[in-house]
Amino acid sequence: MSTETAATSAAAAGLRGVVAAQSSIGDVNGEQGILIYQGYDIHDLAEHSTFEEVVYLLWHGELPTASQLDELKQRFSRNYEAPAEIIAAMKTYPKDADPMDVLRTAVSSLDFYDQNGHGTDREHAVKAAIRITGQIGTIAAAWDRIRNGKEPIAPDTSLSIAENFLYMLRGERADADEERIFDVCLILHADHELNASTFTTRVVAGTLAGMYGAVTAGIAALAGPLHGGANTNVMKMLLEIGDTDKIDSWLDKALEEKRKIMGIGHAVYKTEDPRATWLRRFSKQMADKKGETKWFEMSQKIEKAMLDKKGMYPNVDFYSASTYYLMGIPLDLYTPIFAVSRISGWTGHILEQYANNKLIRPRAEYIGQRDRKYTPIADRG
Ligand code: COA
User: I need a labelling partner for 368 at 20 to 30 A (CA). Which of 21, 190, 326, 337 fits?
Assistant: First the structure.
């Protein structure tokens, strides 16, 4: 597209502020720090609902009745177990493979073993969505066992997605507080409008490619350090700094070197991310419970310094890092956990895209040369 006709240019680099889809799934008000799912405030859902209820809400637009919720939970639990072929294949992966790469590969190959989930009509797409949502946690937890030379733990069909994930990871049930915190973490990460990975899933779904392909692309996008990968990097940063006393000098140097402070800043929020409000609380709760307050205190100090120095607020990844750390979850599983939750938003957006599809095909502003003449290779300098 020529510069004359370009509707957007450098001003919209990264498509900031560009409305690229209509959706009734979720909305972010970046000025006021409000996040809603299908009209419900995230604070209300975090206080009262469960992850399964939220999944139903994202997919159907309404909170479920008791029997609708029960049916969804049963459909999930019937799908908890990953195909034996996938688990067998995972045992052949290099033990040092990044869990996000494993998740992307394994979820992609789930497609081979799904007889019923092909098709972009609502019925088939929901079947695939249930299957992937039911199994993505099983795969993430199984990988942690496999890479440590242990047998994966079979999912317990009586447990929720959150309870099951911690159970399959540890081999025993977590206590009620941790299970509830983890369930709310899944609620908080479920959807966030047209974030990079969700947009990716919609672009793929917009070609009428299948649910598995669209989700696989979403996992690939989520893995990057500027998106879902930030939570792991927050914990690496806290461990690298090591001590509250070292924060000031570490931050000054990092900012001087123009390093991005992980878990800080947001493309849309210009005030407190409402998810961070909950995660700060959970980080403190876990710190008090485990008697290890250092990571929470360090996080608070970095939060304050970044607000003072740069006017920037923590995002969803900032306090989730220390929360998960104190739950004993390995650092490189934080982003897969994000995927275990965000699968609900991705699949909701894919269903919405299929229901009212238009191929997503924007234009580029061409800034290269024109009217050049081909030079034979022998004549090139
Ligand atoms: N630490 C330090 N400086 C930051 C920063 C951070 N986390 N985030 C943004 N900035 C600075 C940039 O260096 C830039 O400064 P400059 O104008 O002097 O060059 C300015 O703020 C704008 O940054 P930009 O990256 O263009 O803003 P954005 O709106 O595109 O950034 C993020 C959004 C999320 C990509 C960015 O804040 C970031 O990289 N954060 C860290 C990674 C992270 O936590 N990602 C998870 C998001 S939920």
Answer: 21
Choose which residue among 235, 260, 270, 338 to substitute to test ligand 1 binding: the one with the highest number of ligand atoms within 8 A of its C-beta. 260
Q: Is 84 exposed, middle or buried (0-12, 13-18, 19+ CB in 10 A)?
A: exposed
Within 10 Å of residue 309's Cβ, how many Cβ atoms? 12
Spatial separation of the C-alpha atoms in residues 25 and 60, rounded to whole Å:
9
* Helix, strand counts (H, E) of the chain: 16, 3
Q: Is 276 in the pocket of ligand 1 (CB under 6 A)?
A: no
The amino acid sitting at 123 is E
3-class secondary structure, 213: helix
**311-338, pLDDT tens digit by residue?**
999 999 999 999 999 999 999 999 999 9
Query: How does pLDDT run across 173-190, given as a tens digit for each residue?
Result: 999 999 999 999 999 999
Of these residues, 189, 192, 266, 349, which one is catalytic?
266
The best mutation among 28, 226, 235, 258 to test binding of ligand 1, ranked by most ligand atoms within 8 Å of the C-beta, falls on 226
Structure tokens at 279: 């995660």
* 164, amino acid identity: N
Residue 36 pairs in a beta bridge with: 27, 41
